[in-house]
Amino acid sequence: MATTKEMSVEEKLRALYDLQLIDSRIDEIRSVRGELPLEVEDLEDEVAGLTTRLDKLQMDLAQIEESIKSKKAAIEGHQVSIKKYTEQQKDVRNNREFNALTKEVEYQELEIQLAEKQIKELKASIEFKKESISQTKEKLDQKSTHLKHKKAELNDIMAETQKEENFLMEKSAEYRQGIEARLLTAYDRIRNSVRNGLAVVSIERGASVGSFFTIPPQTQVEIASRKKILTDEHSGRILVDNVLAQEEREKMEQMFASI
Questions:
Q1: Which of 45, 149, 213, 258 is the most exposed place for a label (fewest CB within 10 A)?
Q2: Cα-flanking dihedrals φ and ψ of residue 207, to 5°?
């Protein structure tokens, strides 16, 4: 390809249209993947979130079970104390000592009642946690299976298209180097502003591709002369004549077929 300074207007138009054909081909390849990469990413996030939730639930369950063990051990301690204070009551010398020991026994019994109530609440919490763990595991299994299938689907598509995409990305970069910065900036601006990514279009049946607005005959003659770079006044797209477009399409189709 000629250097930027040596390129004629026609060469610039051909280079721009070739770049458009290459970039459009890349767009087509990526459209085959569609939303799959985003779906895989979303599923990976969901699986990670569910895994974290499951880990926390299991940790909470372990802590609850540990708390129950601690409460049961405390109850055993209170029962030992009650037995001790009850035995001591047999050897008291006066009512004051007897009443003091009775209060200690009552206190230990209250502590046992409180611990038993807490154990009951903790056991109810265990059932809730186990149900949450079961539901989370089920959901995690479903999402993991779905993710596995989506990844396999994406990998199949990537295996079919990655080589071609990589080749075209290199070609796109190569063609961009041969286009002056001003035109490249305009190309990128137009391409990013239109839904179908077409910044350079040909004229067909008196209108630019994708447009219903007729281009004046005199303007069509100027476009066909390839003496200046003209844009569609309605869409802002760069225009090339149909003959040039057909020649470049045939050339590019041969390149695409060789990949």
A1: 258
A2: -135, 160
Find all residues with CB under 8 Å of 167, minimum gap 6, and list them: 259
How large is the angle between the packed helices 9-33 and 181-193, nearest 10 degrees? Answer: 40
How many Å apart are CA 241 and CA 203, to the nearest integer? 6
Identify the burial level of 124 via C-beta atoms within 10 angstroms of its C-beta, where 0-12 means exposed, 13-18 middle and 19 or more buried.
exposed
3-state helix, strand, coil in the chain (%, to 5): 80, 5, 15
Q: Which two tokens stand for residue 99?
A: 């009443």
C-alpha span between 237 and 213 (Å, rounded): 13
DSSP classification of residue 202: E
Residue 4 neighbours by CB distance under 10 Å: 16
Of all helices (H) and strands (E), which one includes residue 198? none
Task: Give the CA distances from residue 243 to residues 47, 57, 153, 196, in Å, rounded to whole numbers and listed in that order.
Answer: 53, 68, 40, 22
**First-residue to last-residue Cα distance in the chain:** 20
Query: Mean pLDDT for each consecutive 10-residue tract of the chain (259 residues)?
Result: 66 96 94 88 97 97 96 96 94 91 95 96 95 97 97 90 92 94 95 92 87 87 95 90 96 88
Residue type at 243 in one-letter notation: V
- CA distances, 197 to each of 23, 75, 148, 194 (Å): 8, 74, 32, 5
Element (H, E) at 213: none
Q: By three-state DSSP, how is residue 203 classified? A: strand
Q: How far apart are CA 202 and CA 246, in angstroms?
A: 9
Predicted local confidence at residue 4, as pLDDT: 43
Q: Which domains does the chain have, with CATH numbers?
A: 4-31+180-258 (no CATH), 36-166 (1.10.287.1490)
